[in-house]
Write a structure and sequence with these properties.
The chain has about 1000 residues and is mainly beta. The protein is built from six helices and 51 strands. The protein has a 22-stranded antiparallel beta barrel. It has a five-stranded mixed beta sheet with strand order 3-8-9-6-7. A three-stranded mixed beta sheet has the order 14-13-22, with no helix packed on it. Strand 20 and strand 21 form a beta hairpin.
């Protein structure tokens, strides 16, 4: 079935269902349904008190464990398929982006706060396993749309998710469920509830485990990757020493150890560079100076499954243009031998169009552990006053590594170093760095190809305490007052290893600049290295340890260490005043005090005290960046419950909400020395200065809505409309080998429709529709790393030398004059081109010298006008439709069939709305068949998730200039067909 045909089928089906629901609901509102036809009513605690979801003046979607099972919502990523104006995608660096009404987490920094507050039993956790962990033994999941600036406070500008675990009861009961499916998947889950001491003490034990083979194939290793081996356990203890005291102690443990892939595909439309300039034909090396590596082009074309122009990668370019050399030819005539052969190491190879097929030298590794301990206690101070204490502690660790690229270079790209003469000490042999064209990297091993791997690891701790006082007076006035304290600390390390970088660090022309060749070079081959991590010999310190034992001091790899802590305290309160029995006024305020401390640790790849750095090895720590904010947020609104003749229950509400999310610190830049190279000269390298910090986000939100129950409880119709004035939305991109976060103002608006209908006891229908849009403020602008020239034909992108991490933009007229001047003096046509980009001291010696007009914005390029652009990952339309039909069978058995269809329209991966940013809309279809015998607690299930086996691109992340601007893309799980059996007792 074609995409267009699918769209027609789904749209016709959705429109027909909407028409049926609306016409039946309004035309037959007076009709009384048969007994037992009521839609399931979910009790929620969105306002920190138990209320029916239909009576809460908030746009909220709530799901019981039964509903989650029926819809095959097995974890956080599945929630988008049942809620309007919600989207979800994996992102880079082990992150995720849950977006509600266009607002999510687009910034990259350890100090970035989430836009959606993820809560477990009412406590918000900054680091959580919302993406990895699967749902099990829950009472319900609540998703609140819109800013929750009073009761939830910080980090809830988009909304909040509250996951409520099942509590112990005074009944002995249990359940066990076994499941098998495609990809050798096995899942086991269950619980047992044990009353211990009458109605005073109850114990509940629950757990779930999942094992399956990988969804993707690595053609290089021959292994399946992106598999799962994880489990969760939970122990809950309910204690009721008196009628006025109720306590619940929960310990939850999560563990994963498998080959989960952060991204299973990396796309690139190859940028060949410029073949000629000013009438001159350029050599392959020179042409590579004018290539980004990958073009700004659609991710859906055949060309997108290419590989980069490898010669354009600065580390490669330096190794074919006499910067990094192995030695001298002994004949005395052929000159020096470059580290790499002067060919594109990727050879223009094309990849498979299968998003689940990669060619990587290294299989992914993923390990995560998390422990959460919560104690929630309710004290009834009187029949009308309840004091609640919520105490929580969380400890989290994770480790992830995978091949940096999902494609390989051609074999034999290293030159042979056997028999070469020393470049710096005449009459001595050169270090035999690549014997036979094979280089042995201390971390990545021996290879004749360029190998790369990135590694992310972190550990964090969080403590939270909240106290609330809630009233339940009979009069018109009630309140909820509280105070909250959160302390969170984390250390995150991100490494990138490339064997070409280690080889450059040891090469005679780059890392080994000392006249004593024993000081630099192969200090990991058994000889005693004389380079110390804090030394100043002028040589690059190379970490001699294997990958799993790196000391973190080497300058032969990229390491970004991020040390961060935040303490946040808040006081809040809401007043509820019934003006009349049907009309209620709600007013709330919250004062939040955030204190953040970020310790910058500048990156040091290929730096030493002799080439622009401060030390040969190690990572000097910068001065702490301290930020603090004191912010007032809140909400004000009315809700009205009129008595209408055509509904059983109606709620109308109108609210103003103000939300806040803290700013943060940009990850540190490169640790170049600010000391002059010599008296009268500037430092060896000077980068463009970026702000150390980025600003907070603020939102003023206006919302109106209505919730209606009709047909004696058989039909619910809910609608809402919203308008946001958003200030300072945080967006990130990789510049100068770090994440630079910028702030943008935007307007956001939209509509939502939710309906549940049970026309007969056997039939259930659900329809959700969402529309949303946004526009960045006039005058919004930013440098787009994918399109630095902004289409100006008189300028070109230039590659820098390895000192400088980003591309620059230079006028073609200037570059033409420089090449012509060099060729006229018998220099190769690429001579000095590495010094054109501003920042390197080599630029001071360019003849002719560039003017400011030749280097727009200091060489960074032209600003992209973002006025009127939409927010990333915000599809204008989302629709979901489900239908379930059950019928009685013989001997007490009941059969049921359910289908779920979800669609989201196209969206953009970034604010620039380039060709590379466009994400196509996509569909998802699930099917479920069950046969159950309720009296015996037995159920058999057959299901198909992602029935049509669609593989949409749900998100994209563009990598750095110096790794060719490749794009990591993210997709859904493939089709999985499985079966399960459940037994309750």
């Amino acid at each position: 079935m074609s995409q267009r045909t699918r769209a027609r089928v789904y749209w016709v089906g959705g429109a027909s269902a909407a028409a049926v629901i609306l016409s039946a609901g309004l035309a037959n509102a007076q009709a009384k349904p048969p007994t037992g036809n009521m839609v399931e009513e979910v009790v929620v605690t969105a306002q920190h008190k138990q209320e029916a979801a239909q009576t809460v003046p908030i746009a909220i979607s709530a799901f019981s464990q039964k509903t989650l099972d029926a819809a095959k919502i097995e974890g956080g990523p599945d929630l988008l398929k049942a809620i309007p104006n919600v989207s979800f995608t994996k992102t880079n660096f082990s992150g995720v982006n849950l977006t509600i009404r266009g607002i999510g987490t687009q910034a990259v920094s350890v100090s970035t706060d989430p836009g959606v507050s993820i809560n477990f039993n009412g406590t918000a956790f900054i680091r959580n396993r919302f993406f990895e962990q699967e749902f099990f033994d829950l009472e319900r999941v609540e998703v609140l749309r819109g800013p929750q600036g009073t009761l939830y406070g910080r980090n809830a500008t988009a909304g909040a998710v509250n996951i409520i675990s099942a509590r112990p009861t005074d009944l002995f009961e249990g359940e066990i469920k076994g499941e098998v499916g495609d990809y050798a998947s096995r899942r086991l889950s269950g619980f047992v509830n044990i009353p211990l001491i009458g109605d005073k003490l109850d114990l509940r034990l629950a757990g779930a485990s999942t094992n399956r083979d990988g969804f993707a194939n690595n053609t290089t290793t021959g292994n399946k990757i992106d598999g799962r081996d994880l489990y969760s356990t939970r122990v809950s203890l309910g204690f009721k020493p008196a009628e006025s005291v109720r306590a619940n102690l929960v310990w939850e443990h999560f563990s994963e150890n498998d080959n989960r892939a952060r991204s299973t595909k990396q796309l690139c439309t190859r940028d060949p560079g410029i073949p000629s300039l000013g009438g001159m034909t350029l050599s392959p090396q020179t042409s590579a100076f004018f290539s980004q590596g990958c073009l700004n082009a659609s991710l859906y074309s055949d060309a997108a499954y290419g590989t980069p122009n490898g010669l354009s990668i600065p580390f490669v370019l330096a190794s074919v243009t006499k910067t990094a050399v192995l030695g001298l030819n002994p004949d005395g005539f052929s000159g020096s031998v470059d580290l790499l052969k002067a060919v594109d190491p990727y050879g223009g190879a094309m990849q498979s169009r299968d998003l689940r097929q990669v060619s990587s030298m290294f299989d992914p590794k993923y390990r995560a552990k998390a422990d959460t301990l919560e104690l929630n206690v309710d004290f009834d101070l009187s029949p009308t006053l309840t004091l609640t204490s919520q105490t929580a502690y969380n400890r989290d660790h994770y480790f992830s590594s995978q091949d940096y690229n999902r494609f390989n270079t051609q074999p034999g790209v290293f030159n042979d170093s056997t028999g070469l003469d020393n470049l710096v000490v005449a009459g001595t042999p050169a270090p035999n760095l690549t014997p036979g064209g094979v280089y042995c990297d201390p971390q990545l091993g021996c290879s004749s190809t360029i190998a790369g791997l990135d590694q992310s690891k972190a550990k964090s701790r969080q403590f939270s305490q909240e106290l609330r006082l809630q009233s339940a007076f009979d009069g018109p006035l009630n309140f909820s007052l509280g105070a909250n304290y959160t302390n969170y600390r984390t250390i995150e390390d991100y490494y990138v290893f490339f064997n070409i970088i280690s080889a450059i660090a040891q090469s005679s022309g780059y890392g080994n600049n000392s006249l004593d060749p024993t000081k630099c070079g192969k200090n990991f081959d058994g000889s005693t290295p004389t380079i110390t991590p804090g030394g100043t010999t002028g040589c690059i310190y190379i970490d001699p340890n294997p990958l799993d034992q790196v000391n973190g001091l080497g300058h032969n790899y990229f390491r970004s260490q991020n040390v961060y802590k935040v303490s946040s305290s808040a006081a809040f309160g809401e007043l509820y005043y019934n003006i009349t029995p049907d009309l209620k006024l709600t007013g709330g305020l919250r004062y939040t005090r955030d204190r953040k401390t970020f310790t910058p640790v500048p990156t040091q790849v290929l730096l030493s005290s002799g080439n622009g750095g401060t030390v040969d090895g190690g990572y000097p720590v910068g001065e702490d960046i301290k930020q603090h904010w004191g912010v007032i947020t809140g909400r004000l609104g009315l809700d009205w419950s009129p008595k209408l003749s055509f509904t059983d229950q109606t709620l109308l509400y109108a609210f103003y909400n103000r939300g806040y999310k803290g700013g943060g610190a940009n990850p540190p830049a490169i640790g170049y020395s600010d000391e002059p190279l010599a008296p009268g000269l500037p430092p060896l390298v000077q980068l463009t200065s970026y702000p150390d910090t980025f600003k907070p986000e603020y939102v003023n939100a206006f919302e109106v809505g209505t919730k209606n129950t009709l047909l004696g409880g058989a039909l619910t119709l809910n609608t809402s409309a919203f308008y946001y004035d958003y200030k300072g939305y945080q967006v990130s991109q990789i510049q100068d080998r770090t994440a630079i976060n910028e702030n943008f103002d935007s307007k956001v608006w939209g509509l939502e429709f939710e309906s549940n209908w049970r026309p007969t006891q056997a039939l259930r229908l659900t329809l959700n529709l969402g529309y949303q849009d946004s526009k960045l403020a006039d005058g919004s602008k930013s440098i787009d790393v994918e399109n630095r020239t902004q289409g100006n034909p008189d300028f070109t992108v230039m590659k820098a030398n390895p000192f400088l991490p980003s591309n620059c933009v230079v006028s073609k007229a200037y570059v033409t004059s420089l090449i012509a001047a060099n060729v006229a003096t018998n220099q190769p046509d690429y001579a000095y081109l590495g010094g054109v980009c501003p920042g390197s001291i080599a630029s001071l010696f360019l003849v002719p010298a560039p003017t400011e007009a030749d280097l727009p914005n200091g060489g960074r390029g032209f600003y992209a006008d973002l006025s009127g652009h939409g927010l990333p990952n915000q599809p204008k339309w989302t629709q979901s439709l489900s239908a379930e039909y059950s019928l009685p069978l013989s001997d007490g058995w009941v059969g049921a069939i359910r289908g779920d269809v979800y669609h989201q329209s196209q969206s953009w991966a970034r604010v620039y709305e380039d060709a590379i940013d466009k994400l196509h809309g996509w569909y998802n279809v699930n099917l479920r068949l069950t046969v159950a015998k309720p009296d015996s607690g037995l159920e058999f299930e057959l299901y198909a998730k992602n029935l049509l086996d669609d593989s949409p691109i749900t998100g994209a992340f563009i990598n750095s200039d110096d790794t060719a601007l490749t794009t990591n893309v993210f997709t859904l799980d493939p089709r999985v067909i499985g079966a399960s059996v459940r037994k309750r007792f």
